[in-house]
From TrEMBL, chain A:
Keyword Cytoplasm part of the UniProt annotation: no
Bilayer topology term: Multi-pass membrane protein
Gene Ontology biological process terms, A to Z: transmembrane transport
Taxonomic placement: Bacteria, Pseudomonadati, Pseudomonadota, Alphaproteobacteria, Hyphomicrobiales
Name under which the protein is recorded: Peptide/nickel transport system permease protein
Coiled coil: none
Localization of this protein: Cell membrane
GO CC annotations, alphabetized: plasma membrane
Keyword Signal: no
Domain of life of the native organism: Bacteria
Automatic annotation (TrEMBL), chain B:
Any GO BP annotation: transmembrane transport
Protein name as annotated: Peptide/nickel transport system permease protein
TM annotation in the entry: 12-35, 79-104, 124-148, 196-220, 240-266
Entry keyword annotation includes Protein transport: yes
Pfam families referenced in this protein's UniProt entry, alphabetically: BPD_transp_1, OppC_N
Membrane topology reported for the UniProt record: Multi-pass membrane protein
Record-annotated ABC transmembrane type-1 domain positions: 75-263
Record's subcellular location: Cell membrane
Length: 325, 280
């Protein structure tokens, strides 16, 4: 069983879900008062009905909703997401320009939340009911209850305005003409605050799951065996318990992929990052429904892909679970 | 039940949550008495720093509105949106989960496909789409939040129904000739309800956070005193008057914390065997 055929099978299995999502959203958007053409006309400061008719024909809005849906799905199969009315470019191109920023933000936040959550969860579980455990668990609860955008704003106040350590927004220094490693460092510099902001929310969940999972695994028989054969405590925790305790953490990545995408809409707006989330916000404000639909489609694909990767990883961690099944 | 109550009372975190929650409820109830004027009307010179002894204990925002009044009225808004959205979401989740779990077969397949679709979509993105389509007055926003947050409840209810549907009391009901709907809602549902009610606290916490995020992006109702709106307004004067954004954020944090702590306390009190700290 090669990975490729597995991936294709998984995609086929998630096809009904994708079609439900797209059809549902497409029909939903039909209920929207005013269409892209109305938005365009409003931007141009009005125009005569003949022009509107012309534009509707150009954007394919002059046929029935069901026919439009059929046409839309047919074009999707060819990865043609249509034309963005506001940006004047193909939607696929607009999204492709924005996607790397979001992927970078999500990837770094996820790594941070996962690593810190694992470390803190283990620490809390090892120090059960003593002060480090209480402190970590309390902080976790507080992070969970904090709105991410507020975290971001307060981070800007403290680290950008008061201390002047970090930039308050943007993806890179515009016009600095940096290349290569310098540019990468500059981007990393700009992403510190957004990454921490997005990660803190998820850190709370990872840490709680890791703590619970660790407590459960440490009470199992094979841990006692490892101890009985004379392994040092660190060896027991790292080599034996950790790998088993990781399983729920990996599951969580898949479950939270969607939430993380939603969270990046807000975080990207706070820090003025030119990512997918900000694009979604802009297209809501400007009523560019074609772009919005494209973003939703790409997001759903992304969530499905992440879940597939999680399944592969799962099989790696626990050989009993064959990814092929 | 008294056992559960006693267990709840012995849990300090749960008690703290209850006190916080009661405080937020008290703020919401006292808002019209303490601040009878419209909280969004001009109250004084804009951007006065908080002065605990003065006329504006929490200061004024960039439009000269009293921040304390907005915080108190905002408590009403947050609790109301939280409660209504949670009720909507739990109701949808229960109906979908109950039907899927009880009937199984193609009904289960179809309903779970739809649930999966909702879970695959990032719920904040779906919320944006709903707001873009139906506008952003407070009723629409509340219903929309309820509409995007039901899938987890549906899965939970379905799992409960799957374990309950073949129990003897259900078979007894069948033999008595009860209708399906009566068996589902009058007989099985009460047994499936406790974990769902505990989960409602999670839904409520998320609902409050979703509304505040939407308001922060100025995509929620601008004509109500929502905490998120105030944070969004304060963003323009963040450089110097950071308190305008800071204060409502603390209010959101404490409210969500209170709801989560109460939920966790209820969970521990109702399932004593599942205490999270199994002492060796």
């Amino acid at each position: 069983m090669t990975i490729l055929s597995l991936a294709l099978r998984r995609l086929a299995a998630s096809l009904p879900t994708l079609v439900i999502i797209l059809a549902g959203l497409f029909l939903l958007l039909q209920l929207a008062p005013g269409d892209t053409v109305d938005a365009l006309m409003a931007q141009m400061g009005g125009g005569d009905p003949a022009l509107a008719e012309e534009l509707r024909r150009f954007y394919g809005l002059d046929i029935s909703a069901l026919a439009q849906l059929g046409r839309y799905l047919l074009r999707l199969v060819q990865f043609d997401l249509g034309q963005s009315a506001i940006y004047g470019k193909p939607v696929a191109q607009v999204i492709a320009e924005r996607l790397p920023v979001t992927l970078l933000l999500m990837g770094s936040s996820l790594s941070l939340a996962f690593a810190a959550g694992t470390a803190l969860g283990i620490l809390a579980a090892r120090q059960l009911d003593r002060w480090p455990d209480t402190l970590i668990s309390t902080l976790g609860l507080i992070f969970y209850a904090t709105p991410s955008f507020w975290f971001g704003l307060m981070g800007i106040v403290l680290f950008s305005i008061t201390l002047g350590w970090l930039p308050s927004g943007g993806f890179e220094e515009v016009g600095a003409g940096l290349t290569g490693l310098d540019r990468a460092l500059d981007i990393a510099w700009h992403l510190v605050l957004p990454t921490v902001t997005l990660a803190l929310i998820f850190l709370a969940t990872y840490l709680r799951i890791m703590r619970a999972s660790m407590l459960e695994v440490m009470s199992l028989d094979f841990v006692r065996t490892a101890r009985a054969k004379g392994l040092a405590e660190t060896g027991v925790v790292v080599r034996h318990a950790l790998r088993n305790a990781m399983l729920p953490m990996v599951t969580l990545i898949g479950l939270q992929a969607g939430t993380m995408l939603g969270g990046s809409v807000v975080v990207e707006s706070v820090f003025a990052l030119p990512g997918l989330g900000r694009l979604a916000y802009e297209s809501v404000v400007q009523r560019d429904l074609n772009t919005l639909l494209g973003i939703v489609f790409v997001s759903a694909l992304l969530v499905i892909v992440i879940n597939f990767l999680v399944d592969l990883l799962y099989g790696q961690l626990d050989p009993r679970i064959g990814a092929g099944r | 039940m008294t056992g559960s109550l006693a267990r709840y009372a012995k849990n300090p975190a749960a008690l703290l949550g209850l006190v916080l929650l009661l405080a937020v409820i008290a703020m919401a109830l006292l808002a019209p008495i303490l601040f009878p004027k419209d909280p969004l009307s001009l109250a004084g010179r804009p951007l006065q720093w908080p002065d605990l002894g003065g006329r504006f204990p929490l200061g004024t925002d960039n439009s000269g509105r009293d921040i304390a009044a907005q915080i108190f009225h905002g408590a009403q808004v947050s609790l109301l949106i939280g409660l209504v959205a949670t009720t909507i979401s739990i109701a949808i989740g229960i109906v979908v989960g109950a039907l899927a779990g009880f009937y199984g077969g193609w009904i289960d397949d179809a309903l779970m496909r739809v649930t999966e679709a909702f879970q695959t979509l990032p719920n904040f993105l779906l919320l944006l789409v709903l707001v873009a389509v139906f506008g952003s007055d407070i009723t629409t926003v509340t219903v929309a939040i309820g509409l995007v947050s039901w899938p987890a409840t549906a899965r939970l209810t379905r799992a409960e129904f799957l374990t309950l549907r073949n129990r003897e009391f259900v078979q007894a009901c069948r033999v008595l000739g009860m209708g399906d709907l009566r068996i589902i809602f009058r007989e099985i549902l009460p047994n499936a309800l406790p974990p769902v009610i505990v989960y409602a606290s999670v839904v409520m916490a998320i609902a409050i956070l979703l509304e505040s995020a939407l308001a922060f992006l100025s995509l929620s109702d601008p004509n109500i005193a929502s905490w998120g709106n105030l944070i969004g307004a304060g963003r323009n004067v963040l450089r110097v008057q950071w308190y305008v954004s800071a204060i409502p954020g603390v209010a959101i944090l404490l409210t969500v914390l209170a709801v989560s702590l109460v939920g966790q306390g209820l969970n521990d009190a109702l399932n004593p065997r599942l205490r999270r700290n199994p002492k060796p």
